[in-house]
Design a protein that fits this description.
Strand content: under 5%
Order of helices and strands: HEHEH
Radius of gyration: 13 Å
Helix content: 40-55%
Distance between the termini: 19 Å
Number of strands: 2
Structural class: mainly alpha
Shape: globular
Length: 96
């Protein structure tokens, strides 16, 4: 799965100007999610991120959750995480 994402980054995304309204970009988010949680769980988080990336969304910083949960953005979830104003230092190292 990581090879497919890296292929997309090199061959498709590299030829287009940056247009993602989220940080990290959707493909970097997918790499981090798959690396942290594996192909199935990380792939599900990446797919949900792609569904959030729509024209009427606000964008902003959307880090991979520290604890796996597909509901981490909902306040009623035990794994709830508030959106950050600055990216995590560990996430910056992973994308570099």
């Amino acid at each position: 799965m990581l090879a497919a994402i890296r292929w997309y980054q090199r061959h498709i995304s590299a030829g287009n100007p940056p247009c993602c309204k989220y940080y990290p970009s959707c493909s970097n988010y997918a790499v981090q999610a798959v690396t942290r949680y594996g192909a199935v769980r990380g792939g599900l988080l990446a797919a949900l991120r792609l569904l959030r990336c729509r024209p009427w969304s606000n964008g902003g910083i959307d880090d991979v959750p520290q604890h796996y949960s597909v509901f981490y953005r909902f306040s009623w979830s035990r794994a709830h995480e508030e959106p950050r104003l600055t990216p995590l230092a560990s996430d910056m190292k992973e994308t570099a």
